[in-house]
Amino acid sequence: xxxxxxxxxxxxxxxxxxxxxxxxxxxxxxxxxxxxxxxxxxxxxxxxxxxxxxxxxxxxxxxxxxxxxxxxxxxxxxxxxxxxxxxxxxxxxxxxxxxxxxxxxxxxxxxxxxxxxxxxxxxxxxxxxxxxxxxxxxxxxxxxxxxxxxxxxxxxxxxxxxxxxxxxxxxxxxxxxxxxxxxxxxxxxxxxxxxxxxxxxxxxxxxxxxx
Amino acid sequence: xxxxxxxxxxxxxxxxxxxxxxxxxxxxxxxxxxxxxxxxxxxxxxxxxxxxxxxxxxxxxxxxxxxxxxxxxxxxxxxxxxxxxxxxxxxxxxxxxxxxxxxxxxxxxxxxxxxxxxxxxxxxxxxxxxxxxxxxxxxxxxxxxxxxxxxxxxxxxxxxxxxxxxxxxxxxxxxxxxxxxxxxxxxxxxxxxxxxxxxxxxxxxxxxxxxx
Lengths: 211, 212
Hints:
In chain A, 36% of the residues lie in helices and 14% in strands. Chain A is α/β, with parallel strands linked by helices. Chain A has one domain. Chain A has a five-stranded mixed β-sheet with strand order 1-6-5-3-4, covered by helices on one side. In chain B, a hairpin with an 8-residue loop joins strand 1 (4-8) and strand 2. Strand 6 of chain A pairs antiparallel with strand 3 of chain B, so a sheet runs across the interface.
């Protein structure tokens, strides 16, 4: 009887289609990506039915973490020549009699949200390791004697006249801490806020109307 | 696949050997790299941009401000928020000077049959009007631009004279989520006028004795 020989198959698989697909996906992701901004604290926003998108520019965000710590962020503005962050820091430095070098100002303009007493801000900017930086994020003080958050808001509004205010609070934050921020904003003549939420569809139609 | 024949020169000038080189390139490292990059972009990308809910707070008024609009008593719906995601409501005004007319707190929750049902019943006319208008747009009976529709709905809300005027009050034990949820209910139920205000001492007292 003749032996049945299994035909020798090449172990090589043609990977071309796979590579094609991957390159497509890669191109797609590279083009559509907008990087998630780095956040000072993990914040899980509550959900709502609102479909209004958060503006990209001219917005200052106040983050309220679960434990009531408050962080602040502002963007550089739509135009690359505005440098709102640098201007804001210069104003704050003047207010608190601090000095920042040109290098520090530049570095600050590229950084994200922050939350610490302003005297520690320099250390935060200069810190080279993320670990050191995270440790400094202890929240912006809001005592009645030295309400630094109020100054940040005030100066930010002077720097960028068209800036809107967004509040990004964690769902489990106490209402009192949010209330405190809202009162502070109202004292500074901000009566319109954007509350950052997740979209969760929940519709009621005519049929659902109770009789 | 095409093949290229590479000629090699023999050292001794003897026979010339044609050696075959495969044109297949090992693509595995490339695929590896691409996988990594794709994973990286997929994880860092922020697909859904965050949404915002706009709320406008009433301007802080001074005590001497006498031009405050009078709110009809039977249209005032007070919603009180407190710990444990509980919702209490009452209609009218809690006036400590008239203990006989003290309203009772009614307990409910954030579920579909909770506060929403009550709000829908209270706001039935306006809700029906807006829902019908929206339905007409969805089915294509009326064709208008988004901005026109928005202003039409705004106008309906402004003209409404029957719906409740909701006052949202949260005590210090409420969570931020409760407030967002209740404002969200206002949007779902198309409530024309609502405001977030501070609870009065009477109301805080009422919450203490409210049914658990």
